[in-house]
Amino acid sequence: MTVSGERAGRVVDVLADGTGAVQAAVIEVGGFLGVGSRRIAISWARLRFASDKHDALVVELPRERLAEAPEVKTGEPVVAIGATTEEGPER
């Protein structure tokens, strides 16, 4: 869910680095009953567990940014939105 409480999608996978540390979550967004949906990757640093729910993550990015995120496609490099760069966190 977004910080405003809207449902953003559901986690379908997590991505880890070579040490096993989780780097990003793959979220299925949009569509209806799986039709027309797409998968995006969000930096794990931009997610937190909701304080009032045990099974919900809150994404620390505006909904517009999720809509602009590149789609995760099998066999292609993954770009996680909200990842930290040398200049600081991506917005």
Q: What is the end-to-end distance?
A: 17 Å
SSE pattern: EEEEEHEEE
Sheet having the most strands:
4 strands, mixed
Widest sheet, order of strands: 1-2-3-6
Task: Give the overall pLDDT as a whole number.
Answer: 81
Give start-end ranges of low-pLDDT stretches: 86-91
Strand content: 35-45%
How would you classify the helix and strand content by structural class?
mainly beta
- Please bin the fraction of helical residues: under 10%
Q: Radius of gyration, Cα only, in angstroms?
A: 13 Å
Oligomerization state: single chain
Helix tally?
A: 1
The gross shape turns out to be globular
Write up this protein.
The protein has one helix spanning 63-68, and strands spanning 10-16, 22-29, 38-43, 47-49, 57-59, 80-81, 84-85, 88-89. It has 91 residues and is mainly β. Residues 86-91 have low confidence and may be disordered.
